[in-house]
Write a structure and sequence with these properties.
This protein is α/β, with parallel strands linked by helices. 54% of the residues lie in helices and 12% in strands. It contains eight helices and five strands. It has a five-stranded parallel beta sheet, sandwiched between helices.
């Protein structure tokens, strides 16, 4: 059943991977990370793919990885921050499960993202400016793709997991076409 799966979307630093692992463990679900699926298939890191093949090649590999998940059950999937940029991916994610947008204040997202040295999109001359522009360009996509949202700005891990469970429960209870 598609709603058994939980899909976490959001910008870099929103907590998709760290929260996803903990949520999967609590629910006794499998945890998958779309970036990890891409790197396993390509035998290259995300940074290497961006540097040698470009972002479009990475996005194509990402789309293939997401499509390969169709039919899976009881999965928490942490997507890459740009996975929802392609309408094809949005459709695939909708088919996979309930889409939860994890978001936070811009300052918190930037500070969290800077802690991870493997952010190819931040390896630029003016990372904060690039970060702000990229975030602003993606916000409408997150809004459109999500079934529910959780603001992680001031939440600890256990609070975020609780908020996700409540948001999904509310969504499932009141979603369109529910019986």
């Amino acid at each position: 059943m598609k709603l058994d799966n939980i899909i976490l979307i959001g910008f870099m630093g929103s907590g998709k991977s760290s929260i996803g692992k903990r949520l999967a463990k609590e629910l006794k679900y499998d945890y998958l990370d779309s970036d990890e699926l891409v790197t396993q298939k390509s035998n290259m890191s995300v940074t290497e793919i961006f540097e040698t093949q470009g972002e479009n090649a990475f996005r194509e590999l990402e789309s293939e990885a997401l499509e390969n998940l169709l039919g899976k059950e009881k999965v928490v999937l942490a997507t890459g921050g740009g996975a929802i940029l392609r309408s094809k991916n949005q459709e695939t994610l909708r088919s996979l499960g309930t889409i939860v947008w994890l978001h936070a204040s811009t300052d918190v997202l930037f500070e969290r993202a800077r802690r991870n040295p493997y952010r190819p999109l931040l390896e630029v001359e003016h990372p904060r400016h690039t970060f702000n522009q990229l975030l602003a360009s993606r916000l409408p996509f997150y809004e459109a793709a999500s079934d529910c949202q959780v603001d992680t700005t001031h939440l600890f891990y256990h609070q975020t997991i609780g908020a996700i469970r409540i948001a999904i429960s509310d969504y499932l209870a009141y979603r369109p076409n529910s019986h």
